[in-house]
Amino acid sequence: MKIYYSDNYTVPLPLGHRFPMEKYRMLREKLIADSILSPEELFEPELPTCEIITLAHSPQYYDAFANGTVDPKIIRRIGLPWSKELFLRSLASVGGALGAAVSALDSGIGGNLAGGTHHAFRDYGEGFCVFNDFAVVILHLIKSGMIHRAAIIDLDVHQGNGNSAILGDNPDVYIFSMHGAKNYPFTKVASTVDIELNDGTGDEEYLTLLKKNLPAIFEWKPDIVLYQAGVDPLAEDSLGRLSLTPGGLMERDRLVLSECNKRGVPVSLGLGGGYSKPITHTVDAYAGTYRVVKEIF
Question: How far apart are CA 116 and CA 134, in angstroms?
Answer without folding.
Answer: 7
